[in-house]
Each structure stands twice: as structure tokens, then as C-alpha cells.
Amino acid sequence: MYETRVLSGMRPTGALHLGHYHGVLKNWVRLQAEYPCLYFVADWHALTTDYEAPGQVQKNSWDMVIDWLAAGVDPNQATLFVQSLVPEHAELHLLLSMMTPLGWLERVPTYKDQQEKLSDRDLSTYGFLGYPLLQSRDILIYRAKYVPVGEDQVPHVEFTREAARRFNHLYGREAGFEDKAKAAVKKMGSKKARLFNELRTRFLEQGEVEALQRAQDLLDEQQNLPRGDRERLFGWLEGSGKKILVEPDALLTDSARLPGLDGQKMSKSYGNAIELRDEPETVAKKIRTMPTDPARVKRSDPGNPDLCPVWQLHLVYSDQERKDWVRRGCTTAGIGCLDCKQPVIDAVQAELAPMRERAQTYLDDPTLVKNIIADGCDRARKLAGETMRDVREAMGLSYS
Ligand code: TRP
Ligand code: SF4
Asked: Is the beta carbon of 48 within 6 A of some atom in ligand 2?
């Protein structure tokens, strides 16, 4: 019914590192060529935890956008924007907060987890409880179908699906829905109307998923049908009310996990990260001083790659031949650890060099970045405005 949009956001945590690149950004770059994509800076989400010291949020946001661009996110393909510059998100958040049961929010696993993890801050706030609510509005307001996220965010996408369902259930049931739906079918012309009704019956009575799919395709083709009618029919087809908001799916990233320099998850706060804009000397030094298999004290001691974080990097960066070379050389003490690290250093340098160059263009001329975000915000606001118009109407607030 709506175009298949992809949406994802990131909290502005400052300079991004290779973990972000391999875990998220590479995926974003791939998707931008396949779908209309919206990528945004979740600066309000940063404030849910950093409200006492928001000083860094803006700088971190600009830095993060530069890193996106450096990594190959292309503003000519994807729409890049900043959450707080599209205030429609807040309006939807407010309206939908009316119908969100408290229990739903308290049950989201990240709520208690994060409170425990960030125990130095007072997170028993209204805003923090609303974190998943705010996230769901980011998604729903663009009627996004796919949300590329990591495993930890899946509960938030699930929450979003429930919220969309509840909204459609509460407000998609307008007076005279059945009659309006039937009148809408007639507008398709008698032949298609008959086919549509038949497919609908087959789905509702026999549960034929294939019939549902065909009926949906048929509706997709009815570009002349007014949007309200199509929303109605998509809902009626499945025996529900109008589908005003779209239930999204999480798109799990299957890309390789890139561990940090110590083998733990790469994270700025653990001090084990290679940042996208690290200087070449810094990169080389970080990898040269990486810990290796602790049993390999002397050059003549054989080692075990499975106990060595450098091996994890070979898994990402090396072909089979080089991996064989590492395994053989390590276990027979045929190569030293510095020999082993050199190809990784070269591969990371080759990966980062074009990023550094692109980043420099934007650092030299910050207005380029400002313009990209201004354009993206305009586009986002337009899309968000369309949804808000339908939402206001469904909730009886159109005042026209
Ligand atoms: N909560 C997400 C994170 O921490 C960021 C985020 C905010 C987001 N809004 C979103 C991700 C909407 C996807 C879609 O990573
Ligand atoms: Fe690790 Fe390579 Fe040294 Fe083996 S040779 S311990 S895999 S760095």
C-alpha cells in the first residue's frame, strides 16, 4: 500500500568506530541502493539518558553525520535528518501516549537493563520510560516497513508493531466502515471488484495466504483509488479496520561482528575501538599493541589463534589462504605476532583511507553537512506531515 521504506536511527555518541561500520553502516549503504531509506540522528533519545549534561549532543550529532557520509551513506540516495528538527515526531509521541498502557513500557526488557547498567544516573523519569514509545513514533511516522537494527533493539520494533496494531484497532474503525469498504470495492470496476471479493472470502474463510497476497497486489495496482479507500480496503481485507499505521519488521544485520582490540565488543567506553577517523599511525599503533594469545610469551612459543583477538580480525579481513597462513604460522611458531598483524593493519588502512578522505571534505566545509541535513529534514517533514494528517483525521482532530 505504501512504498517499502527503510528507516533507522542512531544515538549521537560521537565519533564512530569500525564496530559501527561493520555492524550497521555497511548495511545502511547496501540498503540505500535497494529501498527509499531514511537515516536519522536520534538526539532526543540521547537526552533520555544524558539530560543532565546535554552539552555534547549537538557536536556529537554533526560528527556522527560526517562519519555516516565518510562510510559511504549517500545523501543522494538516502534521506538523512535529525530527529529534533522534525517536531512531528513529538506530536505523534504525545497523541499515541494517550493509548499506551504503562505496563507495555515497564515490560520492555531494555528498561530495567539500562537502568541497572547506567546506575550512576537517575533514570526513573517519564522520558526514559517513554524511550521505546519515542522510538516507535520515529518508525510509525514514516510508515517504515523495515527497520535495520541490532539484536538488542528487536523488543523496540516488536513494541512498535503492537502500537501500530492498537492504533489501527482503535481508530481504524470509523462509523459505517463496512459500507464504506464495500463502496470502495465497487470503485475498482465490476470485474476487479468481483475478483477482490472472492479473494477476500478465500482468505477470511479458508485462511488462504496466497489469496490475501493476490488481493493485496490487486490493491497495490489501484493507484486511482483515493488513499482513504485503499487504507480501508487493506484493513477490510484482513477483517480489521483501516490500516493507518504500518507494522514494521526488524531487519537483523547478519554482517560479521567486529570485536574490539581486546576481543570484547568494540566500544568507545571500553577503550578498545578503532575510530573511523583515526590517523594511520594511530591505527597501526593500536593494532601493533593489541594483546595476543597470552600463552605466546616468546617468539618461539607456539600459539592458538582461537585464544587471540587478532584472529578475530583475520576472520573479517583475510581470505582463506591468509587464514591458513596464520593458523599454520601461529601454531608452529613459524611467524611472529607482528608478522601476523601486518596484513590486518594493511587491510584496515585500506578500508579507512577513502573514509578519511571523504570526511576531510566535510570537515573542510561544514556547510555541506548542514545543507545535507537541512534538505533531509525538509523531505522527512513532508513525509511525517502526511502521516500526521491521517492520524489527526483518524483521531477526530482535523478541525476542517
Ligand atoms: N534506540 C536505537 C539505538 O539505541 C536508536 C533509535 C532511535 C532507533 N529511534 C530509532 C533505531 C528508530 C531504529 C529506528 O540504537
Ligand atoms: Fe595471535 Fe597471530 Fe600471534 Fe597467533 S601469531 S597469537 S594469531 S597474533
From this structure: no
Instruction: Write out the three cell numbers for 268.
Output: 568507545
CA distance 263 to 288: 14
Question: Rounded to the nearest whole angstrom, what is the distance from the C-alpha of residue 330 to the centroid of ligand 2?
Answer: 6
For residue 278, count other CB atoms closer than 10 A to its CB. Answer: 19
What is the pLDDT at residue 26?
94
- Grid cell digits, residue 213: 497476497
Q: Can you name the residues that pair with 6 across neighbouring β-strands?
A: 37, 146
Ligand (nearest to CA of 304): 2
Q: What are the pLDDT digits (tens) for 69-103?
A: 999 999 999 999 999 999 999 999 999 999 999 99
* Ligand 2 atom index nearest CA of 305: 7
| E strand intervals along 71-126 | 78-82
| 292 C-alpha to ligand 2 centroid (Å) | 6
340 alpha carbon to ligand 2 midpoint, in Å?
A: 6
Is residue 310 lining ligand 2, measured as CB closer than 6 Å? yes
- Which protein residues touch ligand 1 with a CB less than 6 Å away? 7-11, 42, 45, 135, 138-139, 147, 149, 153
- CA-nearest residue, atom 4 of ligand 2: 330
> Residue 228 and residue 76: Cα distance in Å, rounded?
31
Residue-averaged pLDDT of the chain: 94
Would the CB of 311 count as within 6 Å of ligand 2? yes
At residue 256, the pLDDT reads 60
DSSP for 246-288, please give it: PPPEEEE--SPP-B-TTSSBP-GGGT---BTT--HHHHHHHHH
The alpha carbon of 7 and the centre of ligand 1 are apart by a number of angstroms equal to: 9
Q: Which ligand is nearest to the CA of 301?
A: 2
For the chain, strand residue ranges (E) read 6-10, 37-41, 78-82, 146-149, 249-252
pLDDT attached to residue 231: 84
Torsion angle defined by CA atoms of residues 274, 277, 278 and 284, in that order, rounded to the nearest 10 degrees: 70
Strands across the sheet with 37-41, in order? Answer: 78-82, 37-41, 6-10, 146-149, 249-252
> How far, rounded to the nearest angstrom, does the alpha carbon of residue 176 sit from its chain's CA centroid?
38
